[in-house]
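agent> fetching stored inputs for the 1-deoxynojirimycin docking request
agent> found them:
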Amino acid sequence: MEHRQLRPFPHTFLWGSASAAYQVEGAWNEDGKGPSVWDRYTKLEGTTYKGTNGDVAVDHYHRYQEDVQLMAEMGLKAYRFSIAWSRIYPQGRGEVNEQGLQFYDNLINELLKHGIEPIVTIYHWDVPQALMDAYGAWESREIIKDFDAYCVTLFKRYGDRVKIWVTLNEQNVFIGLGYRLGIHPPGVKDLKRMYQANHIANLANARAIQSFRRYVPDGKIGPSFAYGPVYPYDCQPETILAFENAEELNNHWWMDVYAWGQYPSLMWSYLEREGFAPELADGDSELLQAGKPDFMGVNYYRTTTVAHNPLDGIGEGTMNTTGKKGTSQDTGVPGLFRTIRNPHLEATNWDWEIDPIGLRVGLRRIANRYGLPVLITENGLGEFDHLEDGDVIQDDYRIAYLRSHIEQIQGAISDGVDVIGYCTWSFTDLLSWLNGYQKRYGFVYVNRDEESEKDLRRIKKKSFYWYQGVIKANGIQKE
Ligand code: NOJ
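agent> prediction call returned; pasting tokens
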């Protein structure tokens, strides 16, 4: 849609930024914290870029006051962060760790003191190692009650002050990379196990939402989904079929369950035929139906363009985790679709195509299909930054990226989408999981790299001041 005049951002719009516990906190074994699967996995030979891990990360655990001070200086309206399950329950269940609870109390209070709305992600990939050892974590239905107990502890402790909650971060990613590509913990390549673990995660998500209604009746809760809206490569009818296959398998397979408590039927029959469909137990459907979210959380970075892929076509390819442009491979599901580079889009050094309009497309699709408000829980640019003399970082490329995406959000709002807020990824630089520290996303540079923790000094980038202006103006100002 073209608009003669764009709608302004609502006055309640949450201009935010985000992080995740393992990527920022460090203090991996302090104050009673138990190990998570990431504490273990990153120490296995060859799993991450240059063997990096989050033992220290950017030391947010010890520097949270300084970080919140920077957020306040920026004028941030909301800060999304995750809670490390194994800080609260070192063994994943059983005895609760008061020191862990206290840390997040302090962080939440610090945010509120500065008028910053805390948005809590309950689970950002760091399942306690003890639960992996005990029953294979997401592969066992036992996790549903343990996750629920953990959630209830958080709701009771923080529900008076935290009103916006995110259940599972990027379930499609931690399940897909953990059980299909085998490059996240537990490093398994098995589609049957993948779809079963995913189903159990869906049930845990729904159960947590049910409990939330009881303990935080005035709050809002939803999952955050890694949404890569799919485009057909061209208008050949067979490409359109491939496009529909991909949108169903990559996206509706998750979002339909969140929003409607139901799996998309064509993909269900495809997976059943392939022998990968999850096993449903009595009461599963009812539970899924009972755990509807208040909003769809969306992590948006890129679109996916697809074409026809025959039964003997391409399968999994490798990902670029080094920042050497052009090293990622196309991937596909034989008989359904294959990815193909979109010739109209530029890509980052990690081969992620940059597509602000794709965000608007995704927001519109969610509004049309599910009628839910959307909270953009992540969006940002991972790039190399250059620290110049005098502590200057001129990240104009990041400003351009964020600006163009914010413009499209305003476009989506003008189209009629209810967008509650926008959390950029990320506030400070942080550990980018498999990609080490060189793939930087923050408004605040952290002086460390893969080889050394250096002094972990915080330095405001040019984008810091730019976003400060956006928040102040409640949108992009005309130049
Ligand atoms: C999504 C994940 O939630 C976050 O943890 C990650 O660092 C960003 N994507 C960037 O890859």
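agent> quick read of the result: The chain has 15 helices and 14 strands.
agent> awaiting further instructions
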